[in-house]
Amino acid sequence: MNKTNTKGFMWAWLDDDGLHVNQAETLGAIINDVIDVYISGSNCNVKQNNDNLIVEFSSDCREIVDNIDLPFKKNKNNTISFKVKANGIDVARFLERVVAKCDNRADRFDIKEIN
Q1: Helix (H) and strand (E) counts for the chain?
Q2: Which of 15, 60, 72, 102 could serve as 107's disulfide partner, Cβ 3.0–4.6 Å?
Q3: Backbone Cα Rg of the chain
Q4: Is pLDDT larger for residue 44 or for residue 8?
Q5: How close are the terminal C-alpha atoms of the chain, in Å?
Q6: Per-residue model confidence as pLDDT tens digits over 49-105
Q7: Spatial CB neighbours of 78, under 8 Å, sequence gap ≥ 6
């Protein structure tokens, strides 16, 4: 992802209340917004590492630790870290497979880059 060519992201979130359409400057901002809604007090931190995002947050959600089908790392500081490809498709799948699962929700996400 070449940040200099990106003007931001348009993203949609479908939940039980309907369709919500938003804009964000970065994929990390989208992840932070969604995690803040699902997991209050999570202290989410997103860092860019080449073509990946490293997403770290605290959670006592057993569904994440017990049932997640993505590789993750449990850290000494009681946080969980995930490596996510820095693109809209992979970030949307991460939000659906990890974050929504924590709250037993079937929310859907779609993220498009604005050029």
Answers
A1: 4, 7
A2: 15
A3: 14
A4: 8
A5: 12
A6: 899 999 988 876 655 666 666 677 777 777 888 899 999 999 999 998 877 777 778
A7: 58
What are the φ/ψ torsions at residue 42 (nearest 5 degrees)?
-80, -15
Quick check: helix, strand or coil at residue 96? helix
Query: Which amino acid would we find at residue 111?
Result: I
Instruction: Please check whether residue 46 is in contact with residue 54, taking contact to mean a CB–CB distance below 8 angstroms.
Output: yes
Q: What is the tens place of the pLDDT at every residue in 22-61? A: 999 999 999 999 988 887 777 888 999 899 999 988 876 6
CB contact at 8 A, 95 and 109: yes
Entry pTM = 0.84
Instruction: Identify the helix (H) or strand (E) that includes residue 45.
Output: strand 45-49
What is the phi/psi pair of residue 112, to 5°?
-125, 140
